[in-house]
Write a structure and sequence with these properties.
Low-confidence stretches: 1-7, 132-158
Distance between the termini: 13 Å
Radius of gyration: 15 Å
Helix content: 10-25%
Mean pLDDT: 80
Shape: globular
Number of domains: 1
CATH class: Alpha Beta
Length: about 160
């Protein structure tokens, strides 16, 4: 069994993103519910998502392979921690340099609320380092292009 490095706090503040989407709350929530839906929006502009597994149940898998325009692959693997239909999701995710080397752990919370004209999505994400993260790449991935979900970050410590 492979050893894992002890997680260390990253020196970045939590990322929080909010968007009002012109769709009913049930539709926005459903966008997180299947691999086919997630493949359409999860990655930054220019990236593709050739593989995804989404098993929306507590303990169910949330795994995404994002491929950069230069062919570099970035894996995100984790599980659903909490699901309150059409209101809240919490995921415990680990971002990998490749299939084997964890870079950081990201606790992600998504909240869904009715808003004038659609749904208010608030996403927060806090991260702990598993190793020495590629800071510029991490910042690019988190900031995205506006298509990314919003995340309320909570800092949690432990191991990856």
């Amino acid at each position: 069994m492979a050893k894992t490095a002890e997680a260390q706090p990253l020196d970045l503040p939590p990322v929080r993103v909010s968007r009002t989407l012109h769709a009913p709350r049930e539709v926005v929530f459903k966008a997180w519910s299947s691999a086919e839906h997630v493949k359409r929006w999860f990655a930054p502009t220019g990236y593709s998502v050739p593989q995804a597994t989404v098993d929306m149940r507590v303990g169910g898998a949330f795994e995404i392979l994002m491929r950069a325009p230069d062919g570099v692959e970035h894996w995100v693997r984790g599980v659903f921690v909490e699901i309150t239909p059409n209101e809240r999701l919490e995921l415990d995710l680990i971002v990998y340099e490749n299939k084997r080397n964890p870079l950081f752990r990201a606790m992600t919370e998504a909240r869904f609320a009715d808003a004038l004209g659609g749904t208010r999505l608030e996403v927060a994400q806090g991260a702990t380092s598993c190793s020495t993260p590629s800071r510029p790449g991490w910042l690019r991935a988190r900031r995205g292009d506006g298509r990314r979900r919003s995340t309320i970050f909570r800092w949690r410590f432990g191991t990856c």
